[in-house]
Specification:
Layout lengths: L17 E5 L10 E2 L7 E4 L4 E6 L5 E5 L3 E9 L4 E10 L7 E4 L2 E5 L4 E7 L4 E2 L5 E5 L15 E4 L8 E6 L18 E6 L9 E2 L4 E5 L3 E7 L4 E7 L25 E7 L6 E2 L5 E3 L14 E3 L7 H4 L10 E3 L5 E6 L21 E5 L12 E5 L1 E2 L4 E2 L10 E5 L13 E6 L5 E5 L3 H4 L4 E3 L3
Parallel strand pairs: 12-16, 17-21
Antiparallel strand pairs: 1-7, 2-30, 3-33, 4-5, 5-6, 6-7, 8-9, 9-10, 10-11, 10-12, 13-14, 14-15, 15-17, 18-19, 19-20, 20-24, 22-23, 25-26, 26-27, 27-30, 28-29, 31-32
């Protein structure tokens, strides 16, 4: 049997409480290119900008519809529904990306807060429409210079530590000169102990434990079996540098630098280390960069650091792997194979167990520079690291790409969230552009 790749792609959907879409009636609006041995099927469409996703323990797929709230997709096989049924869990127009489940709670992020609801997976409902605010004042003293979206990761308790909620935040601007300081509140990742008393209005963002600083926009987050936090990071977009690193103009055409990055934090040895932004970046295409090579660090000239400082691991933590410039990675997950009981078939190829999978949202320029795609990263499970090193441009392979790259970022897939189910099937959301959303863009998976 061929390995199966299960994807989810979507657009706009009316705000009804529940509705079924039979699998036999669904097709791609803009068919992607799939690599050999990878197949898929639409499971749902017409959602409102689907972003982050999370399976609960009853196999309901919870999805953040940005600007609407949280919905659940549940597989049905009845006379009335032979497909997936959408039901509303929480209707809140402020929720836009982050979602997590842990210790019986549903966590969701808005622009300025992280909220929590007591969640029942059997009834697919929350205990109250009024959430508990876990974190507030996201953005620190930077005022308005922070992104609307924040990724959430639940870190389970251990023998020595309580459970934590990990939260990321990036700047809205291209070059926030204060982002290298922990006191700036942006371009960093923090965590909050879930056993601590919660203040009336939630924990202030600046009171969280600093995990990493200078991560420009670490959107894709996941924890591996070695208790390492992996960060798929979006670097700056609008920059063009010559071989002396002098900025030509922020209005110049987007070129093929700097690289987006895959970084790592050892959660057993948190130092709050510096990861480069806004001083240092990583070369993807060394053409015109003098003696630099792919994966090497260089300094932006408007900062206090120089190339030597950026290349010193005592000052700047280098990435573990580089991604194509402007790929805009938004999620990362590891494939654990079949984890459920009485599974009838396997989702992805079992030889891929342990590998990493990353969603590329692609650039917003026209034509798109970074390809919207899903990629697979060969992984060394013994060392808890990618097989390739940071100097490689072939450290990952494409499994799905937009069918017509010249049409992007318009009518093409734009992957965001990733989730594996217990059968090893991979679900991918695509938030889509406005045009795609009115064009019956669809989720892809198997029932």
């Amino acid at each position: 049997m061929l390995p199966l790749l299960l994807l989810v792609f979507a657009a706009h959907f009316d705000a009804v409480f529940s509705q079924c879409q039979n699998l036999s009636s669904l097709e791609f609006a803009y068919a992607p290119n799939l690599s050999s041995g990878v197949t898929g099927q639409v499971i749902f469409n017409n959602l409102v900008h689907p972003r982050g996703m999370k399976f609960d323990d009853a196999s309901n797929l919870l999805v953040v519809e940005a600007g609407f709230g949280v919905v659940a997709l549940t597989l049905k096989n009845t006379s009335h529904c032979q497909g997936w049924e959408r039901s509303v869990v929480v209707q809140n127009s402020g929720y836009n990306h982050g979602i997590e489940i842990g210790n019986g709670m549903l966590y969701v992020s808005a622009r300025g807060t992280v909220d929590a609801y007591k969640y029942d997976s059997r009834s697919i409902s929350v205990g109250s429409s009024n959430p508990t605010t876990i974190v507030n004042e996201l953005g620190g003293w930077n005022g308005t210079d922070y992104n609307n979206t924040h990724t959430l990761v639940y870190q389970p308790p251990s023998d020595t530590d309580p459970a934590f909620l990990i939260v990321s935040i990036g700047p809205a601007s291209e070059g926030n000169l204060y982002a290298g300081q922990a006191s700036s509140g942006v371009s960093q990742i923090r965590r909050f102990a879930l056993n601590a008393p919660i203040p009336t209005f939630g924990h202030n963002w600046m009171d969280g434990e600093v995990i990493a600083v200078g991560v420009r926009n670490g959107v894709g987050l996941t924890i591996d079996s070695g208790n390492n936090l992996w960060i798929a990071e979006n670097s700056v977009d609008l920059s063009l540098w010559n071989d002396t690193h002098i900025p030509v103009s922020l209005a110049s055409p987007i070129n093929n630098n700097p690289a987006d990055e895959l970084n790592v934090v050892d959660l057993d040895n948190i130092t709050g280390g510096f990861y480069g932004y806004p001083s240092c970046a990583t070369v993807w295409d060394p053409t015109g960069f003098g003696n630099f090579t792919t994966g090497e660090q260089f300094a932006f000239t408007y900062t206090l650091l120089n190339d030597t400082s950026c290349q010193s691991p005592d000052i700047n933590t280098p990435p573990m792997l580089t991604f194509q410039a402007h790929a805009s990675p938004l999620d990362i997950k590891f494939y654990n194979g079949v984890t459920g009981n009485n599974v009838s078939f396997v989702g992805l190829n079992l030889s891929w167990v342990g590998n990493g999978f990353v969603s590329f949202h692609g650039s917003s320029s026209t034509p798109s520079i970074g390809d919207p795609a899903l990629v697979k990263i060969p992984w060394n499970t013994s060392t808890h690291a990618p097989v390739a090193n940071v100097t490689s441009q072939t450290g990952y392979t494409y499994l799905i790409q937009a069918g017509n790259l010249t049409a992007c970022p318009g009518p093409c897939i734009r992957p965001v969230g990733l989730q594996f189910d217990m059968e090893g099937r991979l679900f991918v959301s695509s938030d889509a552009t406005g045009e795609v959303c009115v064009s019956r863009f669809s989720w892809k998976s198997f029932g």
